């Protein structure tokens, strides 16, 4: 009888894994930044700093040295929250995390800091795996509207690069126009 139970349990586990895989999304994005690795790692390790470079609203609160609470605006403006724990850390090399049980958006990932091409800086690579709220249809809608996690990670990395290399994040906010300007009459 133990064989039947273990076979049934194994089959149930496989079904659960298949269902989770069907709704799990993954994204890997990278950027090369011309700054010392210790500066990049130190900035990112202070998790609240991530909200400074994110274009999208995110509130991050450190609960301890390895735990944090995250709150973001999800589909339809719904507030989504989760607690995360750092699962692996190698200074100037890697920060890995995983959301805790009960997360509105179950997720895990890592940020790697590695040597880039000679004289071009450090490659910062972010890998994220998450369960999109609302399933596949909501994930497709998010992708079409530019709010898919991979798109958000890339935008955050671009802004991180700008802040680290130039000391500021370029913006067109507050500008009278963000596109090409038409020539004034009589001027070429």
Structure described in brief:
With 188 residues, this protein is an alpha+beta fold. Helices cover 34% and strands 30% of the residues.
Question: How are the SSEs ordered, and which strands pair?
Answer:
Layout lengths: L1 H22 L1 E9 L3 H9 L4 H4 L4 E5 L4 E7 L5 E12 L3 E6 L7 E9 L6 E9 L4 H10 L4 H18 L22
- Largest sheet geometry: 7 strands, antiparallel
Name the CATH architecture: 2-Layer Sandwich
Q: Quaternary status of these chains?
A: single chain
Question: Going by CATH, what is the homologous superfamily?
Answer: START domain
Q: If helices are DSSP runs of H or I spanning 4 or more residues, what is the number of helices?
A: 5
Tally of extended strands?
Answer: 7
Give the strand content. Answer: 25-35%
Task: Walk me through the structure.
34% of the residues lie in helices and 30% in strands. The protein is α+β, with helices and mostly antiparallel strands and 188 residues long. The protein has one domain (25-166): Alpha-D-Glucose-1,6-Bisphosphate, Chain A, domain 4 (2-Layer Sandwich). Strand 2 (58-62) and strand 3 form a beta hairpin. The protein is globular. Mean pLDDT is 82; it is low at 14-22.
List the keywords.
188 residues, alpha+beta, 34% helix, 30% strand, Alpha-D-Glucose-1,6-Bisphosphate, Chain A, domain 4
């Amino acid at each position: 009888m133990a064989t039947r139970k273990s076979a049934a349990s194994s089959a149930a586990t496989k079904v659960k894994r298949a269902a989770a895989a069907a709704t799990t999304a993954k994204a890997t994005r990278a950027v090369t930044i011309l700054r010392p690795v210790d500066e990049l790692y130190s900035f990112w390790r202070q998790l609240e700093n991530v909200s400074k470079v994110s274009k999208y609203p995110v509130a991050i609160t450190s609960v301890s040295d390895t735990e944090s609470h995250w709150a973001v605006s999800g589909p339809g403006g719904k507030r989504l929250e989760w607690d995360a724990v750092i699962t692996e850390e190698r200074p100037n090399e890697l920060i890995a995390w995983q959301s805790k049980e009960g997360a509105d958006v179950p997720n895990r990932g890592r940020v790697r800091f590695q040597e880039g091409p000679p004289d071009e800086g450090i490659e910062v690579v972010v890998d994220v795996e998450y369960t999109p709220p609302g399933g596949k249809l909501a994930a497709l809608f998010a992708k079409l509207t530019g709010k898919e996690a991979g798109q958000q990670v890339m935008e955050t990395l671009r802004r991180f690069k700008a802040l680290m290399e130039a000391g500021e994040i370029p913006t067109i906010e507050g500008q009278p126009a963000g596109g090409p300007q038409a020539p004034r009459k009589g001027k070429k």
